[in-house]
Amino acid sequence: MPASILVVEDEPAIQMLIATNLRRHGHLVVAALDAETALRQINVALPDLILLDWMLPGMSGLDFARRLRADARTRNVPIIMLTARGEERDKVTGLESGADDYVTKPFSPRELLARIQAVLRRGRPQATEDAVEADGLKLDPSAHRVFAAGSQVNLGPTEFRLLHFLMTHPERVHSRDQLLDQVWGDHVFVEERTVDVHIRRLRAALEDSGLDRLVQTVRGSGYRFSVAED
Ligand code: CA
User: Tens digits of per-residue pLDDT, 113-144?
Assistant: First the structure.
């Protein structure tokens, strides 16, 4: 499953190199030349991961990372810091500011991709290709297939992403706003009732197997994927 990656890098040549590489590996790339532009982009759609250059004009990458960590909406978006600094104390400062990993320039595209995959696997299981299974329901992202009690279930692309997110974040309540951010990548221009429509479709597709009971409504709060009784 492709991840949406925001690249914040003020050197156009490096930005282009990174973006081209990520796109070649199927990722969706949004790029910004400074932190202020990146913030506006994040307000529109939350990315799965941010590649953040340390030295930026205006707000530094370090201050930007701290700011993202201080805001509940962006607190859990993984950040990989890009920097020309290679000293141990800089690395510690970078990680203390809230970055999840740290890549020193010059880096090979291969190394960067490997680090991205590792961070995504840790923090964003829905952005990896790992199959997930719960109570007879199985979702395989690489084959784009869902099986309920052994039978294949046909889901639309949005229902598939929605189920993938819910299954990789089980036993937690997700508000409609959070689901729009995580599944649609857009909590501004998509209406909250859109979530209800796709939840209904998802449940209808799982009804024959009885596994629609795993997709639970939490009144007044949102939705939850749970193998426990509602
Ligand atoms: Ca720079």
Answer: 988 988 887 777 777 788 999 999 999 998 99
Domain check: are 8 and 121 in the same one? Answer: yes
Q: Is the pLDDT of residue 153 over 80?
A: yes
Asked whether residue 230 is assigned to any structural domain, the reply reads no
Distance CA 45, CA 26 (A): 18
Domain assignment present for residue 116? The answer is: yes
81 and 139 assigned to the same domain: no
Report how far Cα 117 is from the mean position of its chain's Cα atoms.
12
* Centroid of ligand 1 to alpha carbon of 55 (angstroms): 4
Instruction: State which amino acid sits at residue 187.
Output: H
81's CB contacts (< 8 A; 6+ apart) are 52, 53, 54, 61, 65, 94, 97, 99, 101, 102, 103
Number of domains in the chain: 2
pTM above 0.85, yes or no: no
**What is the Å distance from ligand 1's center to 14 Cα?**
9
Q: CATH code at 18? A: 3.40.50.2300
Q: Is 185 helix (H, G, I), strand (E, B) or coil?
A: coil
For ligand 1, an ion, list residues with CB under 5 A.
10, 53, 55
Burial grade of 104 (CB within 10 A; 0-12, 13-18, 19 or more): middle
Claim to verify: residue 120 and residue 150 sit in the same structural domain = no
| Residues in Cβ contact with 14 at an 8 Å cutoff, skipping those fewer than 6 apart | 53, 105
Q: Is the pLDDT of residue 56 over 90?
A: yes
**Domain around 94:** 4-125
- pLDDT at 127 (0 to 100): 74
